[in-house]
Amino acid sequence: MDSVASSYPAGGMSSPRPGSPSPGGGSRTIATAATISAKIVVAVPVGPPDTCREFEDEADEVICASAPEFFQAVGQYYEDFSQTSDEEVRELLARAAQRS
User: Which of 5, 40, 69, 80 has a 20 to 30 A CA-CA distance from 88?
Assistant: First the structure.
């Protein structure tokens, strides 16, 4: 097994691709025990064609189910696109953490 150094932003989230800028600026290097091979897939139900193409430079595979030429907003493609409250997000994350 090869030792690998991974770059993490100061906040603890990993950069999406090696060599890509870290959100929020600074980074730290953490040595890992083994090389991990992962495929990055971006899948979205709807998006503007140019944005779907831009993802191709960042991900190994891009699935954009619908890319209408005259895209204006994601919400126009949903019957209910209401906002999710911060409290609901916290509750869902807490439930997910309990399951893992």
Answer: 40
